[in-house]
């Protein structure tokens, strides 16, 4: 039931609820000390009731506007009233956005703040409260200091009015826009208001005559219609004058009538009749029924000229369309750059529409549960030190952020702080984080930023900017840089002497020089080369297998455990003792060969192992074709060498990377070259397979200061 007078107190509001608020919560609220309702509360609740907001939303507004009331609510009570808690959290989060708006420089980036607001509130009903409170503040701001009026109006114009427009809540949108415009441009506002007032009597008489003529004509045609004058809003008049570049006297919709009918067929029938009554202006006709606006606004708009040359705008829509236009539906929150609505926002739309329409029979708990699902985002909204909002895809790094701020900031980026804490360049901030980029006076991007395995860049836009920088370098410099990258990668995977012909064929590169340049520019990743070599070696071994594969070997009992400390299975040999060669330490996924030793069974070597190749070259009849089967153990011993500039916390950073990969360190030794400031760290690790080892080496290689991380043997 709409409020006829504002509540004098919290108890007054509770008395009017008729069981709409849970009894337990009412008891807690009644026990709170008597608090006089703030001046904004009555107008806010009246607006919320006009919007058909439920009691939970109204209660959230009361708690939000009444100083100290939230602190008096017991935590367990708020926990049970989860919907209320979500609303209050959203209102508190919105205060952060208002603060950022006040801190920013200029009037730009309002869309970013709107997106941030929508990202940090988990219940979109919060927006209804924010709009209602802001309208109450604007209405009460007439006697406020000029600076406060301007700040309030700017916030309204940047955040609240656009949100009301996107929700389609026209009755709030028009008043928010007009009041904000009144404070931002008082002279223009008064001039247009005066122009409207000067001919008000003649305009009102003409509108009354037009309304009666339309009623009579539609009634004769058997169309039931409600016909009313449509109030003109000063901000929309000014916007249309500015957009069209025309004076006030040439606007078609200063005189306006709205016609409400029962169904869509009557809309078009009424349109035909009014076009017979007066001369239509073809350029001013819009069919928003066939093509609704983005916020689901539906109506027919037409402009007409009477025999005396006076213009009249007529809007025709159904009663249901009018209800939607006045109360709002959220059919459009945000569109991607291409103009297509995202699926996640379509889910938001469906739930928000149900909330605003207040459908009977909806289960509120189920509605809110679905609402949380609908709010899953695929974007993050981050803040610059000045409070500007940067919109990035989910999982973007601080380096992506740097390139989003400016290309040169990205190129010169050497570090970052998130909320005042120094983080690595591959750190992924969350919505609402404040990111500060640390830059050098001069600098250039690093080629390893382009390596996907390093995780520095998640956005294609940032990667394109890095590639573009390297494309500008001369070919000789790129050629040498590519050679260095390739040598480093082949050394890392112990394939330094591999034949690269299969790589050129598989990756469709004409020459080795072209491969080097492609590596330097980031068009081909070093890991693609090593993976191609690995796959080619495996294919050769499989092709060399006999037509009928030999059953998988089973380790036989022996007097001492295998030298690698683990059990394994190798297909291609049967009933023979097998052991992994210590010289190259093969792991599952490596291309391997078998060598039949004298008295020690079959020794398994990596295909690239120099020792294994020498043995096979000397006695080729002892080579056995083998390949990996199902391992009985998932951990294999490997030796790794890391060369790096000696610095504080180097070992800590390296071991953290290894620990995060869930790899065990069996032993570690280091040697420092103080004259050159370098350190060599030898690690004995337990890995599950080639893939895990290769990924780890890439991450170790990306640790600041590391020159080289490679496998030994």
TrEMBL record:
It comes from the Bacteria. Residues 376-439 form the TGS domain. Residues 639-713 form the ACT domain. GO terms for cellular component: plasma membrane. SUPFAM superfamilies: ACT-like, HD-domain/PDEase-like, Nucleotidyltransferase, TGS-like. GO terms for molecular function: GTP diphosphokinase activity; guanosine-3',5'-bis(diphosphate) 3'-diphosphatase activity. GO terms for biological process: guanosine tetraphosphate metabolic process; nucleobase-containing small molecule interconversion; response to starvation. Pathway: Purine metabolism. InterPro entries: ACT-like_dom_sf, ACT_dom, Beta-grasp_dom_sf, NT_sf, RelA/Spo_fam, RelA/SpoT_AH_RIS, RelA_SpoT, TGS. NCBIfam families: spoT_relA. Belongs to the relA/spoT family. In eubacteria ppGpp (guanosine 3'-diphosphate 5'-diphosphate) is a mediator of the stringent response that coordinates a variety of cellular activities in response to changes in nutritional abundance. This is GTP pyrophosphokinase.
């Amino acid at each position: 039931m709409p409020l006829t007078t504002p509540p004098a107190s919290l108890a007054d509001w509770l008395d009017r609820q008729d069981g709409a608020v849970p009894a337990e919560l009412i008891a807690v609220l009644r026990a709170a000390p008597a608090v006089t309702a703030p001046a904004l509360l009555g107008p806010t609740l009246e607006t919320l009731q006009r919007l058909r907001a439920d009691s939970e939303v109204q209660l959230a507004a009361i708690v939000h506007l009444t100083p100290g009331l939230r602190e008096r609510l017991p935590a367990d009570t708020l926990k049970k009233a989860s919907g209320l808690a979500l609303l209050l959290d959203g209102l508190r989060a919105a205060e952060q956005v208002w603060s950022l708006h006040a801190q920013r420089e200029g009037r730009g980036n309002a869309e970013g703040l709107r997106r941030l607001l929508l990202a940090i509130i988990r219940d979109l009903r919060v927006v209804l409260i924010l709009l209602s409170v802001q309208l109450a503040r604007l209405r009460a701001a007439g006697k406020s200091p000029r600076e406060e009026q301007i700040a309030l109006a700017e916030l309204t114009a940047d955040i609240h009015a656009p949100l009301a427009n996107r929700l389609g809540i026209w009755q709030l949108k028009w008043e928010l826009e007009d009041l904000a415009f009144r404070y931002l441009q008082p002279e223009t506002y008064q001039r247009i208001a005066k122009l409207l007032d000067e001919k008000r009597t003649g305009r009102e008489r003409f509108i009354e005559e037009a309304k009666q003529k339309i009623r009579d004509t539609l009634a004769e045609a058997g169309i039931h219609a409600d016909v009313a004058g449509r109030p003109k809003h000063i901000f929309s008049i000014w916007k249309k004058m500015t957009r069209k570049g025309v004076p006030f006297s040439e606007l078609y919709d200063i005189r306006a009538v709205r016609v409400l009918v029962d169904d869509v067929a009557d809309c078009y029938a009424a349109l035909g009749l009014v076009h017979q009554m007066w001369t239509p202006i073809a350029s001013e006709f819009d069919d928003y029924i066939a093509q609704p606006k983005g916020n689901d606004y539906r109506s027919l708009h037409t402009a007409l000229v009477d025999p005396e040359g006076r213009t009249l705008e007529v809007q025709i829509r159904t009663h249901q369309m009018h209800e939607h236009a006045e109360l709002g539906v959220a059919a459009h929150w945000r569109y991607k750059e291409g103009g297509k609505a995202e699926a996640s926002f379509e889910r938001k739309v469906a739930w928000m529409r149900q909330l605003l329409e207040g459908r009977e029979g909806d289960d509120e708990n189920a509605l809110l549960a679905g609402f949380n699902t609908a709010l899953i985002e695929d974007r993050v909204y981050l803040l610059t030190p000045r409070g500007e909002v940067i919109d990035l895809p989910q999982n973007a790094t601080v380096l992506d952020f740097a390139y989003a701020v400016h290309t040169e900031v990205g190129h010169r980026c050497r570090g970052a702080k998130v909320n005042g804490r120094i983080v690595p360049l591959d750190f992924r901030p969350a919505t609402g984080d404040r990111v500060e980029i640390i830059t050098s006076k001069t600098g250039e991007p690093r080629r390893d930023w382009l390596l996907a395995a390093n995780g520095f860049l998640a956005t294609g836009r940032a990667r394109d900017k890095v590639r573009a920088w390297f494309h500008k370098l001369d070919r000789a410099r790129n050629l040498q840089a590519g050679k260095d990258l390739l040598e480093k990668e082949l050394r890392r995977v112990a394939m330094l002497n591999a034949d690269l012909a299969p790589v050129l064929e598989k990756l469709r590169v004409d020459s080795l020089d072209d491969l080097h340049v492609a590596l330097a520019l980031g068009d081909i990743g070093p890991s693609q080369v090593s993976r191609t070599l690995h796959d080619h070696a495996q294919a050769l071994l499989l092709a060399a297998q006999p037509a009928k594969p030999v059953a998988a070997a089973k380790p036989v009992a022996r007097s001492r455990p295998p030298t690698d400390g683990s059990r394994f299975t190798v297909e291609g040999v049967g009933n023979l003792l097998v052991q992994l060669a210590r010289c190259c330490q093969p792991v599952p996924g490596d291309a391997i060969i078998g060598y039949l030793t004298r008295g020690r069974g079959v020794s398994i070597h990596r295909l690239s192992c120099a020792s294994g190749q020498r043995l096979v070259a000397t006695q080729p009849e002892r080579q056995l074709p083998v390949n990996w089967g199902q391992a009985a153990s998932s951990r294999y011993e490997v030796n790794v060498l890391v060369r790096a500039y000696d610095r504080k916390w180097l070992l800590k950073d390296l071991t953290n990377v290894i620990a995060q990969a869930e790899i065990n360190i069996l032993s570690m030794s280091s040697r420092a070259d103080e004259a050159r400031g370098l350190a060599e760290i030898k690690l004995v690790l337990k890995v599950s397979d080639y893939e895990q080892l290769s990924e780890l080496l890439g991450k170790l290689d990306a640790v600041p200061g590391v020159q080289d991380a490679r496998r030994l043997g």
